[in-house]
Amino acid sequence: MNNTYASRVATLIGQNVQVTTSVDTITGTLVSSDKTFIKVNTGGVDGSEGSKTVSILTSVVAYIRVV
Q1: Predicted TM-score of the model (pTM)
Q2: What domains does the chain contain, in order, with CATH numbers?
Q3: For the residues 1-8, what does the mean pLDDT come to?
Q4: Which residues of 4-41 are buried (b: 16+ CB within 10 A; e: fewer)?
Q5: Mean pLDDT throughout 31-42?
Q6: What does the alpha-carbon distance between residue 59 and residue 48 come to, in Å, rounded to a whole number?
Q7: Which domain of life is it from (predicted)?
Q8: What average pLDDT does the chain have?
């Protein structure tokens, strides 16, 4: 895998992250990353009640940090 943005973000899959855009900050477990979307599970552990997966366009991400 080459050293693209998507591949670097993919190394964080399974970790708790904050994804920040110009209008929002989403906190949860990173579940996938590709050239178009970053997907974060914002709910309980292992999809428990109240969980949802948020898809964020990579083009609007300001930064990602591990929390």
Answers
A1: 0.82
A2: 5-66 (2.30.30.100)
A3: 74
A4: eebeebeebeeeebebbeeeeebebbbeebeeebbbbb
A5: 94
A6: 29
A7: Bacteria
A8: 89
